[in-house]
């Protein structure tokens, strides 16, 4: 009851934050959020869950319920999943939609979700062929936007790969490592019984399918397809130690797909062109906006490094100044006494010297005044 009272008191604040998040988004983003909320309300009925979700055994012949691939994505059972879905879709409308356009974002949305439905079904079919457990085909219900959330994380990795999310004692967490870390966390939560088994499966499927689409098939305004940049290769999802192993596994698969015609080979040429402004370098698979974005990131890193260097120089000069003042104070405490100027200007008194004759005959002393 206390939790409900706290939640009821914070409803105006939450409403304000959600309205600010979805205020300037497109109608497609608002439509997705509204449908997800309606799906959460419908999830209280078990019959609706059975009908709207993807059941691997019913997606295959003879049932062949293909229409469930268009309805499973807006069915969420837990409230925290609804909140995460709305926040992610809202941020997607703020960040990705201005770059891609509304049509491309909706195309990415539907292709990813439909692909996740079929790939997850194939995954459970493979497990069933090993275990012969029919519950994997008829008791598993695939639903939710976990696959699309993974796809959004891959798209954000492509757009801002080095954006710092948080600093930890073990290192920096950036968008580059976010898809793999969430997949590992989902597997661990499933292993301890805190998450459904479909969630890590859908997340892995969404990560793989979205990377394939963005890497090889997405059409850009310049007429090119995909993103063949080195920092968007599949082995770049993994730590540096594991990248050679992943590259060795993915390399033969990629060559087979190139021979079949499913994807394009990785170009290794760099084009140089002379222009009145200087030398222009164009790299295949890299869009001009990507080059500009990376240039801005490099300039930002350079300015941060220069500001850090100037701060260190300023602190060093300040410490040197403090040391010099300390030395001056120490010298002022040991002052050599000075005579007044009047005494130094007065003439010295006459000095009398006595001359003594050292001859054999004694003579009276003679006094000479100088």
From TrEMBL:
SMART domains the UniProt entry points to: DUF1751 (SM01160)
GO biological process per UniProt: retrograde vesicle-mediated transport, Golgi to endoplasmic reticulum
Superkingdom in the source lineage: Eukaryota
Keywords: Membrane, Transmembrane, Transmembrane helix
Transmembrane region(s): 21-42, 77-96, 108-130, 136-156, 177-193
Entry keyword annotation includes Acyltransferase: no
Membrane topology reported for the UniProt record: Multi-pass membrane protein
Location of the region described as Disordered in the Swiss-Prot/TrEMBL record: 339-370
Protein name: Transmembrane protein 115
Compartment(s): Membrane
Gene Ontology cellular component annotations, sorted alphabetically: Golgi apparatus; membrane
